[in-house]
Design brief:
The structure holds two protein chains of two kinds. Chain A has 23 helices and four strands. Chain A is an alpha+beta fold. Chain A folds into three domains: 113 residues, 50s Ribosomal Protein L17, Chain: A (Alpha-Beta Complex), CATH 3.90.1030; 39 residues; 254 residues, no CATH class. In chain A, helix 11 packs across helix 18 and helix 22 packs across helix 23. The two termini of chain A are 58 Å apart. Helices cover 21% and strands 22% of the residues of chain B. The chains are: A alpha+beta, B alpha/beta. At the A-B interface, helix 2, helix 3, strand 2, helix 4 and helix 5 of A face strand 1, helix 1, strand 10, helix 5 and helix 6 of B.
Chain lengths: 456, 498
């Protein structure tokens, strides 16, 4: 029963997060009403210990009778209707009745229930606005008063992301959500793994993030053996993560330089739409892996290059994200993509995958270093081919230094790829776009970055 | 201010009380496909719009004539009896007569197709006007039928609300200027109103089942419009509150049982803020000078659609939704707007019927046309995203939206100003925009503020008309009681000092 105190102390006091009753109820798997009471108790106790240590935002529900048709409006409207209805309603004798009724109707009082979100310090004034208050409860508690109440939306956004793999039809019951016995949902003719219908949404929302990174990684290493092993290892998660394929496919289609990129994007979008509802993932997986299995040398070079770069991105950005994500949810959203990448760790939860992935990572890191020199050469060779990417670079480098692109030597490339994270990131979400949830956050950030560069 | 007894039940320490699990009231739902356009090859845009006017006049004329006949039978002025004239051109000068036709408003400030054609000669196109009425009284009212046009004048016109496309019977005489001096006019008024449960009962009778006498008590229907999800960093907190309210998570126990009474959510247009018109391929290609590498995030931002999808997907496990498109939604621009495509809703479409599923009954998540009509809990609902009213608003002097809505019903036309100033599909043989059955509830989305009224018709029809405000601006959700057709509001907001 007292688990909530721990949870709240950890999240609100230590991590300085905003916790809503919904977040609490989901975290502890309790009824939302109970969560509201927990928030209240925690807020009460903490402030008794140390006044002002926790701030609460309340929601007040109440009624207030308002006149629907304001007088200014009611007058003229009635006159005009009368003048209009008079000629048109055949029995003239009905006019008085009609008038009477209209008078009656426009005087009709419409009850309005209001839900008002109020900071604790504003409670008195807010209460005064109501005729009758039917309910008050704590909406969120937070370490400091929020400047803008809009930040509270992040609570729900996090819930949506974090608990996306729950089956709303089953799991929401415990939260006190109103149940609907008549709900009609598509029964999924999804073949193998997740028999439960949730799996679709769950897979679509949650799984991709972690597994995409793992698989991307696992497929990265060119040696066929490794790929196989990784495939077998990750096969379980793979089945439900089509985006990975989307991510993997684009690099394997490098032929058309200028146009290919857009094509690829389109592809991944298509896959995205498939990913949510239809099962063709396994197939795609196959095609993707087969494409990889018989790669033209060029292709490989590209694939490796891009993927390596991505990896470096994660490495670079991960730590900073860690700090921010904990505190500022909004920023977190912008960096959701980076989070996505950072989630590398998560997949390891799955015991079987863990070792394999870990190994792969280790080897990867090694091989990365080895591979890079190769890339450089190939990149220079195929420089014209990858102009698109280079352009992006240019824009970026133009800002601080220009020597970047001109020099084609190895060291230059390396620094190039290190500096590149931002544009790269912009790309990543798209390819792994089917992870709707992760993507959403990513897009915001991405959009900004892209448009920034787009101005040129 | 009174505080209800149970109000602070949640402001106490966690209790061991078990909280009840609530079930939502079932929704009886039977949509009509009146406004579905033919698909693919069968949809043509080459027809002339004139056919629409002919069809409309042909359909409405007999009814108007009957009403006029009854009203003006034996009507005499100075010994002269009003005589019916079949065609507008048959009106003779100095003769008291009445004629039926379509109103056409000649307004200099109205957008003109010829202006569009000559647009390139302008430095910049004139801004959209709030009203087409020109101050100098240069506007002219005409009455037209297939034979020709008659210019209308007279005091009587001032008291009438008239827009292009509505059909009236006008009585008067042609004066020396060749204009028709109107003394009186009639319109067609409300059509027949079906009984409650009429269609459902018919369907039952057809299948040979006995008509159910006892139906479970209906709940409430929630109507909201103008969510205008924009994907901005600070998205609307009200939207969260709306979700939580409908799911029955916010507020205490009495509030929850209120929410459990809501059996269906209708979204009346403008769910997305800036999603229309959809840029064409050419526009996308020419918009930016240089080609971007890959996906160009500056030209397309998917966040709003995702937020909308998430919003719907969060509600659908608990409440069925009917979604109408609106002006700013990514549907076709011309009325009737066709349903928003399921591809926009990767998560919510789990709750919609597969396109291949025939006869599976209405979708739980029903993406429908705008305008849309259908039976909800036995009542006939008719609703639009607001375009026809917004357009009529430009023709008339007043501000009273309810009045315009009422007139639309009494003209029996969902969008009289289409195709004149409102884009619409060139219907040919029939005009689905004509109102054949009088609805019980007529709602129009995206209006400046919440208003409602009950109007009645000559045959005892009662119609609840509701102007639904934009949620983004007002935070108002409208609830219609499906037993009494009474209306109440729920408003969400934040308390801000000052």
């Amino acid at each position: 029963m007292d688990k909530y105190k721990e949870f709240l102390a950890l999240n609100v006091l230590n991590e300085e997060r905003i916790i809503s009753y919904r977040a609490l109820s989901r975290a502890l798997k309790v009824h939302t009403h109970l969560a509201k009471q927990m928030l209240y108790a925690f807020h009460h106790d903490e402030n008794a210990k140390r006044p002002g240590s926790v701030h609460a935002t309340y929601i007040i529900a109440g009624t207030k009778a308002i006149q629907t048709v304001p007088q200014t409006n009611g007058g003229p409207s009635q006159r005009s209707t009368n003048s209009f209805t008079q000629p048109s309603s055949p029995p003239l004798s009905s006019m008085p009745d009609q008038d009477g009724q209209e008078d009656h109707e426009s005087d009709e009082n419409i009850t309005t229930t209001r839900f008002l979100l109020v900071r604790e310090e504003d409670m008195k004034e807010a209460k005064a606005q109501f005729d009758e208050i039917t309910s008050i409860h704590v909406y969120t508690i937070e370490p400091t008063p929020p400047k803008d109440l809009q930040v509270l939306t992040n609570c729900n956004r996090e819930i949506q992301k974090e608990y996306a793999n729950e089956d709303p039809l089953k799991d929401w019951r415990q939260y006190g959500t109103i149940q609907n016995p008549n709900v009609k949902r598509r029964t999924n003719r999804r073949p193998p793994p997740p028999a439960a219908p949730i799996a679709t949404t769950a897979a679509a929302k949650m799984a991709p993030r972690p597994s995409s990174t793992t698989i991307a990684k696992s497929t990265e290493p060119p040696p066929a053996k490794r790929r196989k092993s990784s495939e077998s290892a990750a096969s379980a998660s793979r089945a439900s993560t089509p985006q990975v394929d989307a991510a993997a496919i684009p690099p394997s289609k490098p032929e058309a330089k200028a146009k290919a990129p857009t094509l690829k994007r389109d592809k991944s979008d298509i896959f995205k739409s498939f990913a949510k509802s239809k099962p063709p993932k396994p197939k795609k997986r196959d095609t993707a892996s087969s494409a990889e299995a018989t790669p033209a040398p060029e292709d490989e070079a590209m694939k490796d290059a891009s993927e390596d770069e991505q990896e470096e991105d994660f490495a670079l950005t991960a730590p900073t994200v860690d700090d921010k994500a904990a505190r500022q949810a909004r920023k977190e959203r912008e960096e959701a993509l980076r989070n996505m990448m950072e989630d590398e760790d998560e997949p390891m939860d799955d015991a079987p995958e863990m070792q394999a992935v870990a190994e792969q990572q280790a080897t990867l890191i090694d091989s990365k270093a080895e591979e890079e020199p190769e890339q450089k050469e190939e990149v220079t060779v195929s420089g014209g081919r990858r102009r698109g990417r280079r352009r992006v670079m240019k824009k970026k480098t133009a800002k601080d230094e220009e020597g970047y692109l001109v020099t084609k030597e190895e060291p230059v490339w390396e620094s190039f790829s290190e500096d590149e994270p931002v544009p790269k990131k912009a790309k990543v979400p798209v390819s792994s776009g089917s992870a709707a949830k992760g993507k959403k956050g990513a897009k915001a950030g991405q959009g900004n970055i892209m448009s920034f560069f787009g101005k040129k | 201010m009174a505080v209800a007894e149970t109000a602070d039940s949640l402001l106490q320490r966690p209790s061991d009380n078990a909280f009840p699990i609530l079930d939502r009231v079932p929704s009886s739902y039977n949509p009509l496909s009146t406004f579905i356009l033919p698909k693919g090859e069968d949809r043509h845009y080459t027809q002339q719009f004139a056919d629409m006017y002919f069809a409309r006049l042909a359909r409405v004329k007999p009814a108007v004539e009957q009403i006029a006949e009854e009203a003006w039978e034996g009507f005499e002025i100075a010994g002269e009896t009003a005589r019916r004239v079949d065609r507008a051109l048959d009106v003779r000068q100095g003769e008291l007569c009445w004629v039926v036709g379509t109103v056409y408003m000649e307004m200099p400030l109205k957008p003109n197709i010829l202006d569009d054609l000559s647009k390139e000669h302008w430095i910049s196109a004139p801004p959209d006007r709030e009203k087409y009425i020109s101050p100098g009284g240069k506007d002219e009212t005409m009455l037209e039928d297939e034979s020709g046009r008659l210019r209308l004048t007279g005091q009587h016109l001032q008291s009438q609300m008239l827009v292009t496309g509505c059909i009236i019977a006008a009585m008067g005489t042609e004066n020396a200027d060749g204009a028709f001096e109107v003394i009186d006019s009639r319109i067609v008024d409300l059509p027949r109103q079906p009984e409650r449960w009429e269609r459902d009962d018919e369907a039952l009778a057809l299948t040979g089942k006995s008509v159910k006498k006892q139906r479970p008590e209906s709940g409430k229907v929630a109507i909201v419009s103008g969510l205008e999800i924009s994907g901005d960093a600070a998205d609307n907190l009200n939207l969260d509150l709306l979700t939580e309210y409908l799911l029955g998570e916010v507020s205490s126990s009495p509030g929850r049982s209120d929410a459990a009474q809501i059996s269906r959510l209708v979204i009346a247009g403008n769910s997305l803020a800036h999603a229309s018109p959809i840029p064409t391929r050419d526009e996308l290609a020419t918009k930016k000078g240089g080609k971007k590498y890959g996906y160009d995030a500056s030209t397309y931002n998917p966040t709003p659609t995702e937020h909308l999808d998430d919003f719907l997907a969060a509600l659908l496990p608990s409440i069925p939704i009917t979604l109408l498109p609106g002006t700013s939604d990514p549907a076709n621009v011309a009325l009737p707007q066709q349903p928003l495509h399921h591809a926009l809703f990767p998560h919510s479409r789990e709750y919609a019927n597969r396109p291949t599923e025939e006869g599976a009954g209405p979708s739980w998540f029903d993406s429908v046309t705008n305008p849309w009509e259908g039976d909800v809990d036995g009542w006939r609902f008719l609703g639009t995203g607001g375009q026809p009213i917004d357009d009529v608003f430009k023709y008339v002097a007043g501000e009273d939206r309810l009045d315009m809505m009422e007139h639309l019903l009494r003209w029996r036309c969902n969008a009289p100003t289409a195709p004149d100033t409102l884009w619409c599909y060139p219907f040919q043989m029939q005009d689905p925009l004509l109102i054949k059955d009088c609805p019980h509830v007529y709602f129009v989305g995206n209006q400046p503020r919440f208003e409602t009224r009950v109007i009645d018709g000559p045959a005892g029809q009662l119609v609840r008309i509701i102007a639904v405000p934009k949620f983004r601006e007002t935070g108002v959700l409208v609830l219609v009681d499906a037993e009494t057709l009474g209306v109440e509001c729920v408003q969400f907001g934040t308390f801000d000092r000052g």
